[in-house]
Specification:
Blueprint (H helix, E strand, L loop, with lengths): L2 H23 L16 H5 L13 H4 L11 E17 L2 E4 L5 E12 L3 E16 L12 E15 L5 E21 L2 E26 L2 E8 L2 E11 L9 E9 L2 E8 L5 E10 L6 E6 L9 E6 L5 E11 L4 E10 L17 E12 L2 E15 L11 E16 L1
Antiparallel strand pairs: 1-2, 1-3, 1-19, 3-4, 4-5, 5-6, 6-7, 7-8, 7-9, 8-11, 9-10, 10-13, 11-12, 12-15, 13-14, 15-16, 16-17, 17-18, 18-19
């Protein structure tokens, strides 16, 4: 059996295994909006997400699949980030804390050059997710107790390089979304709570390009489309109360379009520099509309709308890496992530603000096997509850510790 056939079989096997891991172990945390970008690989996290212009990584299956057509060898990578957030509302002398947990965030990538100018790739990860869980008796329980949204992306792509320094890619974004929301219903019925669950599968697309005019310089850009999700599920109550009946529910959610632009520089031996800009079209998130077949309080068809009115936003990323030897590389990065949420629309289901991420990492390579690890300290700027939630006052504060570990193969 030829080496090419063996490599192809191994890549297919790794791909299936990694996809199964992603489906089984998917977990989420909070981000700017509910977007997760920096956490999608250890090498990516150590580089602060400045991966759009990289031309030599398995993670290109997600960050910019156009680069696969410029590669020489198949690669595969699997790993997981462990996200440990802290979020609290300080109200006078009392602090209400979100439940402490460690959320696993898995991902998997496979890239396969086909001939000299064509490449195929596949990624599985969770670029959007949200989990917040407050105490059941906290003052904001009528707004939110638990909110859990998980969006698993499976992204197949194909790339083509018309020249040795320019390539393009197109791909599909297949999204499996699940959601769970729990809250108390009304102060008039203090023990009554509702739980809403839903799920859907939707499809979007991506287009990307890579330009590498010199060995020491590369430029990349990728556009990802909006993905329109319609969560179908049900609303249940913990008690039998007239007017509050189990109901089918629909909840449309639009995941935003994004544009990522990156520049990667290798001007002197052993040193690498990266700059990245990510634009996210969060203005598509105008409101959260629950369509009930039996609306709470009436038992008749109706809609409950919660205004969001988020803004388009951006993220700035800067990184440096140094090869201290042929086998070892160290990385550091800084990311500024601007929130799309205005103070007047801040809700306890996602009370985040602008974020600052400080990243360090390292990688070790031996023959065709590599290991990468990274650590991020995330600090959220303090924010205040919306005036539309008068029962809540004070200051939200938050941070997170994130650890990534990857294994990668080159065939």
């Amino acid at each position: 059996m030829s080496r090419g056939i063996v490599s192809s079989s191994i890549v297919r096997g790794l791909c299936i295994t990694m996809l199964l891991l992603a489906f089984v172990f998917t977990g989420t945390s909070y981000g700017a909006g509910f977007q997760l970008f920096n956490e999608l690989s250890a090498r990516g996290m150590g580089n602060g997400g400045t991966m759009t212009a990289r031309t030599d990584t398995a993670e290109s299956a997600w960050f910019n699949p156009a680069s696969v057509a410029l590669m020489k060898h198949p690669q595969a990578l699997t790993g997981m980030a462990l996200v440990m957030p802290y979020l609290a509302l300080q109200m006078g002398d009392h602090e209400y804390r979100m439940k402490k947990m460690a959320y696993p965030l898995p991902y998997a990538y496979v890239v396969y050059p086909v001939g000299d100018r064509v490449g195929i790739s596949l990624s599985a990860n969770v670029p959007y997710g949200l989990t917040t869980e407050w105490p059941a008796d906290w003052p904001g329980r009528y707004r939110a107790i638990k909110t859990d949204l998980r969006c698993l992306f499976v992204t197949p792509s194909i790339s083509y390089a018309p020249t040795d320094c320019l390539s393009f890619a197109v791909g599909a974004q297949i999204v499996r979304a699940t959601a769970e929301m729990t809250k108390a219903v009304t102060p008039a019925l203090p023990t009554l709570t509702t739980k809403i669950t839903g799920h859907d599968t939707a499809v979007g697309y991506l287009v990307s390009a890579m330009l590498k005019p010199a060995r020491w310089c590369s430029f990349g850009v990728i556009f990802r489309s909006e993905v329109h999700i319609k969560l179908d599920g049900e609303a249940k109550y913990n008690e039998a109360v007239p007017g509050f009946y189990r109901s089918d529910v629909q909840l449309p959610v639009t995941l935003p379009a994004t544009v990522s632009v990156g520049l990667n520089l290798h001007p002197v031996p052993r040193w690498h520099f990266g700059i990245g800009y990510l634009w996210t079209g969060w203005s598509s998130y105008k409101s959260l509309d629950f369509f009930y077949y039996r609306a709470p309080g009436t038992g008749l068809p109706g809609t409950v709308s919660l205004p969001r009115n988020w803004d388009d936003t951006y993220s700035l990323r800067f990184s440096v890496a140094h090869n201290i030897s042929k086998a070892w590389i160290v990385r550091a990065a800084y990311v500024y992530d601007k929130t799309p949420i205005d103070d007047q629309y801040r809700d306890p289901s996602l009370p985040t603000n602008d974020r600052h991420l400080f990243n360090i990492g390292c990688g070790y390579t031996h023959n065709n096997l590599g290991v990468d690890v990274a650590y991020t300290f995330l600090r959220m700027e303090h924010s205040h509850p919306s005036p539309a939630t008068p029962e809540l006052y004070g200051t939200y504060k938050g941070l997170a510790n994130i650890i990534n570990v990857d294994l990668r193969w080159r065939f």
